[in-house]
Amino acid sequence: MGKKDASTIKLPVDQYRKQIGKQDYKKTKPILRATKLKAEARKTAIGIKEVGLVLAAILALLLAFYAFFYLRLTTDVDADLDQDED
């Protein structure tokens, strides 16, 4: 029974350490909250890479569209020129 009685009595050093730990937690809580908000904003924000990829995809689509019509129209014009020469 001596051990149970000894474990219930806390040493002043342990109480002091616990109090300091609580104070440190209170100090770091706003810092943790700010870090969490920054991480959340970073996850939800559209990054430069995503914007660049979208712009590159649009540019590639426009280039393919332009090339398709350019090649289609130039072959039609060449065919009309060849028929006029005969």
TrEMBL record:
It is found in: Endoplasmic reticulum membrane. Keywords: Endoplasmic reticulum, Membrane, Transmembrane, Transmembrane helix. The keyword Transmembrane applies. Signal peptide: none annotated. InterPro entries: TRIQK (IPR024842). The chain crosses the membrane at residues 51-71. It is a single-pass membrane protein. It comes from the Eukaryota. GO terms for cellular component: endoplasmic reticulum membrane. The keyword Transmembrane applies. Pfam families: TRIQK (PF15168). Belongs to the TRIQK family. PANTHER family: TRIPLE QXXK/R MOTIF-CONTAINING PROTEIN, TRIPLE QXXK_R MOTIF-CONTAINING PROTEIN. This is Triple QxxK/R motif-containing protein. It comes from Aotus nancymaae (Ma's night monkey). The lineage of its organism: Eukaryota, Metazoa, Chordata, Craniata, Vertebrata. The gene is TRIQK.
